[in-house]
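Limitations
The C-alpha cells in this dataset are predictions for the assembled complex, not deposited experimental models. Users should treat interface geometry with appropriate caution, especially where small molecules or nucleic acid strands are included. An illustrative entry is reproduced here so readers can see what is and is not provided.
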Amino acid sequence: MALKASDNPNLAHDFDDEDGPLTFKRYTSSKKKQLHSQLTKSTSPSSNGQPSSNHKGNTVPSAVGNSKASTSLANSNSPKPVLDQKIPIHIKGETKSIKHSTKDSEDEDHNKPFSARLKVNSNNDNKSTPVVVKKSYEDSNDDGAMPLSAKLFRNSNARASCGNYDDSDVKKPISKVQKERQNGSSASNKHEKPSTLLAKRPIDNSNSMHTSVKKLKVSDPAGSIKTEQVSMKCEPKVDDDDDGIPISQRIKKPLTSPDKSSSVNRKLTMSADKSSSMKNSLTKVTKVNKAGKTSFKKQPQKLKKSGKGSDYSKSTKLLPSSGDGQKKWTTLVHNGVIFPPPYQTHGVKILYKGKPVDLTPEQEEVATMYAVMRDTEYMQKDKFKENFWNDWRKLLGRNHVIHNLKDCDFTPIYDWYQSEKEKKKQMTTEEKKALKEEKMKQEEKYMWAIVDGVKEKVGNFRVEPPGLFRGRGEHPKMGKLKRRICPGDIVINIGKDAPIPECPILGERWKEIRHDNTVTWLAYWSDPINPKLFKYVFLAASSSLKGQSDKEKYEKARMLKDYIANIRAAYTKDFTNKDITKQQIAVATYLIDKLALRAGNEKDDDEADTVGCCTLKVENVTREAPNKLKFNFLGKDSIKYENTVEVELPVYNAILKFQKEKRPGDDLFDMLDTSKLNAHLKELMPGLTAKVFRTFNASITLDDMLNKGTKGGDVGENIVVYQKANKQVAIICNHQRSVSKSHSAQMLRLNEKIDGLKAVLKELKTDLDRAKKGKSPLKSSDGKAKRNLNPKALEKKISQTNAKIEKMQRDMKTKDDLKTVALGTSKINYLDPRITVAWCKRHEVPIEKIFNKSLLAKFSWAMDVDPDFRF
DNA sequence: CTCCGGACTTGCAAATACTTTG
DNA sequence: CAAAGTATTTGCAAGTCCGGAG
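Predicted assembly:
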C-alpha cells in the first residue's frame, strides 16, 4: 500500500495536508538560543527587535528524535508524513482576485526591446510607472520634498498621539515619543497562549519524533502551539542639537488630518501595546554613534496576550531570531538534487548554405537551443549571436564545414520543435496527467528535506539544464552556452548523521559533501557562466527557516520607524557638511529614503550596465531649476527608472556640486560605495542597511493606505482598497512588467464591447420613448420583433446597462493603468504580511482574497497576528 | 581599508494551471 | 468545448550584504 501510494500521484495527498498553507511547524532549536546571539551580535538583524523567548528554554532538540526522522526518510523514500506538528488549516483554495479586462492599442510594442518599450511607455503614457511615482507626491505639494515615507510616518505619529498623547507629542523629543510608543511586534503576540515556546518546544520536538502522524486540529486550541515573541524596542536617543529642525517641522506639519479609522485602530493598538508590556526579557544597550552623541537603547519588549479570537486560526509562530551564533539547523536530511534528463538527439539537420549538415549530438543540442529561440528578442541582438557562435564554434571544432553563423539555417529544427510542441498540446488530458504523474513520482523524493525533524519543502531541487544564457538588458554574456551540470560539480550540504544522497548518475559522484550547519543551503554548484558565482539549492519559501528570516526582515524595518526621525534629522544636517564624503552619504541616504532606491553595488564589466543609488552616474540625474531632479537610469534587471522629483534645496545644490567638473559617465557619488554607506547606516541603527528603507517604505505605505482608505465597504470594495495600496507600493518600488502581447488587442475588444452596450442603450432609449407613447418597439437589428415592455422595465434595463458600461470602463482603465505595474513582487518581498492579515481580520476580508496558496504558506508565521497590529 | 568569496533576497518573464467566454 | 484570458508557479538572473584575508 505504501508503495503503491508513493507511486501514485494521489499520494501527494499525504503531503498535501501536511504542507498545506497554514501549518504549524516546529520550532527550530537554533531559535531558542538566540538570546545569546543577540547579545553577542549586535548588528545582526535578527538580534534587534526580535522577539525572543529565550530565557530558560534552552532545551536542545534532541538529536534522537531527529535522527529517527531522518532514518525513516532515508530508508524509505516513503512519503509518509514526517511531520506531525503541522496543522492543516482549511483554506478555501480559490484565491481569486480582481481582474481587469481590456485591450488597447499598441501592438507594435512587443517587438521592441524591453527597455525600449518601457521608454515608450514612460514617455507616452503618463500612467506608467515613473511618472506615477511622481504622482504620489502630488497630493501633498506642501511637502513635496519630504521623504517618501515621511508623510506616512507622520500619520503614525498622529496615530500614536491619539492613544495616550496629545498632539504635542509630536513636538516632544523624538526619543520620548518613541519610547512611549510600544514596539510593534508584540502585537502579534496577543493571540498567543500563555504557554511559551520554550516550555513547549522540547515537547513538541519530541512529539514530532515519536508520534508520527498526529495532526493537530486547528480548531483545537489546546492543540495549537503558540509561540511567544518578544520584541525589543529601540529607543534612540538623540542629541538635541542633532535634531534637525527641518525634520521636526516636517513631522509636525502632517498632523493635518488624522483619519478616523485610524484613530480607532490606534486605540486598540495602544491598549494592546500596553498590555503587552509585561513580560520582558532582555535589555540591550547599543551604543552607537558618531561623535558619540547618540546612543540607542533597546528596551525589552513584551509578549502579548491573545485577545479575542480572530477569524483565523492560528498557525505557526516562528521563534525569534535564529540566533545561536550561526547555527541554522541541528539535523538536516535530504535526498540531494535531481538532474535533467540526458539529451535526446532528434536528428533534424540544419542547413548550411542551403545544404543539410550532419552534427554530433553535442553540436545538435546546442544548435537546438539556438533554433528554439528564434522568436525571442535575443535574436535581434548581435551580442547574443556572437556569443553563441563563439561557443558553438568551439564545439564544431576547427575545420568544420560550418564557418559562420550567417549561413546557417536553423529552420528545420525550429519547425521540428514547433511540431513537438503542437503534439504535446494535442495530447489528451489523460495522457498529460499520466505524464505529470510520472514526473511527480520521479521527483517526489527530492521535494522534501527534514530539518530538525520537521519535513520542509525544498525550493529548487532541480539542477538547471544546459541552455543559452539569457542575461537581461545588454548583458555582455548573453547567448553563451551554459553547460550541463554534473554531479561532479555539486557540493552537498547535509547533517552529519544523515545518509549521503545517492548520486543519481551512475558512475559519477558528488564533488563534495559538507556538514555545515551555519548555512541553509542544501547544495550548490558554481555558475557555468560566471564561475565566481554559485547556484544554491535552498528550502522553499514556506519553510520555517525562510519564514524566520522573513520575519526578522520586517521586524528590522519596523524598528526603523523608531529611528527614522533621527536619521532624517541627521542627514538633513549633513546636506551641507563640509566633509564631502559625509555630504554624499547624506544625500544618498536621502534619496534612498525618499525614493526607495536600491543601494547600488559596484558591477563588473562583464555584467549589464545598471546602477543603484551609490553607482548613479552624473548623466543619470538632471537638474531642473529651481529644485527638481530628474532621474533616468537603468536599475536592477535593466528596468528603467524615470522620475522627476522635487527635492530640498540643499540637496539640489549638493547634486550640483557633485556633478561639477565631471563627465557624464562619472560617478555622481565619487566618494561613496555601498559598504561605506551601510557602515554609516549601521551607526544610526543596529542592523540598518539601505535595503531596509525599501521594506520600510513599502510596508508603511501599505499600512497607511489601508487604514486611511478602508471605509467599511463590502469585501469587494475593500479589496479594491488593498489593490490600490499594493499598486502604490509597486510604483514606489518601480516594480514593472512588460506589457502583455495581447494587451492592446484586449483593450480593443473591451472597447468593442462597450460600444456594443452603448448601441443597446440607444435602442433601449428609443424603445422607451416609443413605449411612453404607447407604441411598440422597433424591430431589432436582426429583424425580429421585440417584446413589448413597459416603460418601467425599460428604464430599469437602461440603468442596468449604464451601470454595466461604467463598470466596464472602470475595469478597462484599471487594466490599462496596471499594464506596466507588477504587483506581485512587493507582495512577496516588501509588504509585511502581518499588516495584511491584521487588516483582513479587522475588515472581515477573507485572507484568501489577498494571498494565494503560496503566499499563505509563505506567510504562515504571520497568520495569527493581532487584528490591531500596525506596522 | 579594499577585495572578493560567499550566502541569501529580490525580480522579471516564461511556463503552466485554471477560468471564463463565445 | 476551444479559445481567450487570468492567475499561479517555476526558472533563474541579478541584486544586497557580510565577513575574512591581505
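Some entries come with short summary sentences. For this one: Residues 699-827 of chain A form a domain with the Topoisomerase I; Chain A, domain 4 fold (CATH 1.10.132.10).
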